[in-house]
Amino acid sequence: MRRESPLVQCVTNYVAMNYAANVLLAAGASPAMVHAPEEAGEFAELASALTINIGTLSSYWLQGMHAAAKAAHASGKPWVLDPVAHFATAFRRQAIEGLLALKPTVIRGNASEIMALAGDVSSGRGVDSGDSVERAEASALALARRTDAVVAVTGVVDFVTDGHAAVCIAGGSELMPKVTAMGCALTCMVGGFLAVTPQQPLEATVTALACFGVAGTQAAQASNGPGSFAWRFIDSLAALNGDVLQAHAQVARA
Amino acid sequence: MRRESPLVQCVTNYVAMNYAANVLLAAGASPAMVHAPEEAGEFAELASALTINIGTLSSYWLQGMHAAAKAAHASGKPWVLDPVAHFATAFRRQAIEGLLALKPTVIRGNASEIMALAGDVSSGRGVDSGDSVERAEASALALARRTDAVVAVTGVVDFVTDGHAAVCIAGGSELMPKVTAMGCALTCMVGGFLAVTPQQPLEATVTALACFGVAGTQAAQASNGPGSFAWRFIDSLAALNGDVLQAHAQVARA
Amino acid sequence: MRRESPLVQCVTNYVAMNYAANVLLAAGASPAMVHAPEEAGEFAELASALTINIGTLSSYWLQGMHAAAKAAHASGKPWVLDPVAHFATAFRRQAIEGLLALKPTVIRGNASEIMALAGDVSSGRGVDSGDSVERAEASALALARRTDAVVAVTGVVDFVTDGHAAVCIAGGSELMPKVTAMGCALTCMVGGFLAVTPQQPLEATVTALACFGVAGTQAAQASNGPGSFAWRFIDSLAALNGDVLQAHAQVARA
């Protein structure tokens, strides 16, 4: 990632933009927040990967998401879908169907989002999950098989599957859900690793989650609350290298 | 608040979104930034409270604000109006009239904003106040009576009234006006407390302001400037509990 | 700047808004992020200076940029143009031509952006520069003469010219390109100094760059990474005064 500094296009929500860009910069990527329908497709052809997050959705942005995802798909670029609170309103439910049809390479969400996306009953409310990752494992497997995408359910222990193999990633900190946009930034981070290893979406996703796990654990050790955690996490990510990751990542076949 | 973790819908400005979401998370609420006319009304029926802030206004967002405020009003949910710089342009003056007609439960602004909203002469310029809170007290009382809303004027010492009772809240720090979106985040915080005590808008507003006062004083003690204050304030809010609040809040009947 | 606390209108991108507002507050200015076509022109007449940044461009925002720049030009107010990644898409290329025609007082960009704007071949990709400042000096001189604007190329050592005189500004830190929106915030800072010395655009630009250089060097000394640098930079800016600036600024005629 640091050697290639891949250009990653992020169509993400207003809340996450700044933090997600700083996360990608800390990891060594070159983020570009380009969303308008007038240019999102053209830009997706330049970028090495694309991420789409429906957190602060509107019709205009949805057009840009379609333009970008179509261009990414057409030019063989990987893209990640983050279905924030997709079950909350009719507008979101319809939007997410359209985006799923554009064949995301990876889908990342919390347990409630993934369960609802798989057609199962969930306890989600707003943008926060009401379900445990464990409860979402079967939904994730089913969703991965149906969509031919890698599916990542993130929470206390993350679960990633391509419909066949499955991996669990531990680490992180209980402060992470107290910092807004942490999940959205993780989606962008998955895009960063997809950009450098586009043929290995499962491995790229696991690596991104492992980075968040290790940096999260490190940052929490010196933090007194979510305010200090947020910037220490960026420092930890920026200091992360292959050796530290290898030594501290808590990754296991599920 | 921490026990109920209420879902609070915030239609706020681009500058404030991230910081306001972190403030609500630190206080124990579940913020959701949902603004599009396509879904803002539907979402307002799910949320326990709504906040509307016109900081970075546009016609499209104004439609979403109306949809959300109408739905909140129709379903008996409390909502807070933050009339940022409403006197600055014709577009804002017209927008604020339309929003006031939708019956906010609480109106929070700086002294110049409240004075201008009450029809009095103010010295506001841009988003900063040119008047003292004391000068705005009579305007706040008049505005509260006319609109049947709780009115909060925030500044060095805050003033809150429902048109009859009035409360002053001291505390905070002179660093607070040096951090952007602090007032906008406070508006969201009022929404958080309204969500858990919807029948007591005066008390909810005073509690939110007292939290900001106590956390602000604490954060300032260890800060070297507005940069460090911003994240220490989040840490202080996250560490706040009923006992600390009771012991340090500077609240007095006016 | 601190004495006058000028009102600076910033039409900037979603990523930069919060950080840029905090930078201007730390420097003593009063930032206002007002972008909608419905009011951007009217507000530009109230403000002392305007900054326009096309980072997260859309058609609607472009209308607001035109309204604001026209009003600024008509009322003799200085304005700064930040042509973020203007070469990346047809939409941006067209947008930047239209904005250049509205006569910016100052143009600030990275080396690739300025080279491309001058019609020269550049190695820009996304929002990051692929060229050194030194390589862009001739382009900056040509662009300044053609547009009658002050042109600032920022990077390791900044280069500023009005087409005749030229100034180099050193300082800062290698952490600065690792914090998103640092360049966008600098553009707003230039707007702040233009607001107080509108007749001296070259000096105003150099002063803004010198402030960033000195505060950046100071902030980096105590930082462990881009996360801590971001808020320490705000603290350093807020503590900066004329004496410190004079003592530490690394400014030289080129």
UniProtKB/TrEMBL annotation, chains A, B, C:
Pathway the protein contributes to: Cofactor biosynthesis; thiamine diphosphate biosynthesis; 4-methyl-5-(2-phosphoethyl)-thiazole from 5-(2-hydroxyethyl)-4-methylthiazole: step 1/1
Swiss-Prot/TrEMBL cofactor(s): Mg(2+)
One protein family per Pfam: HK
Gene that produces this protein: thiM
Protein name from the UniProt record: Hydroxyethylthiazole kinase
Catalytic activities: 5-(2-hydroxyethyl)-4-methylthiazole + ATP = 4-methyl-5-(2-phosphooxyethyl)-thiazole + ADP + H(+)
Role description: Catalyzes the phosphorylation of the hydroxyl group of 4-methyl-5-beta-hydroxyethylthiazole (THZ).
Keywords: ATP-binding, Kinase, Magnesium, Metal-binding, Nucleotide-binding, Thiamine biosynthesis, Transferase
Positions annotated to bind substrate: M33, A181
E.C. number(s) listed in UniProt: 2.7.1.50
Family: Belongs to the Thz kinase family.
InterPro entries, per database record: Hyethyz_kinase (IPR000417), Ribokinase-like (IPR029056)
Signal peptide (from-to): none
GO molecular function: kinase activity
Major enzyme class: transferase
Superkingdom as given in the UniProt entry: Bacteria
Binding residues annotated for ATP, in chain numbering: R108, T154
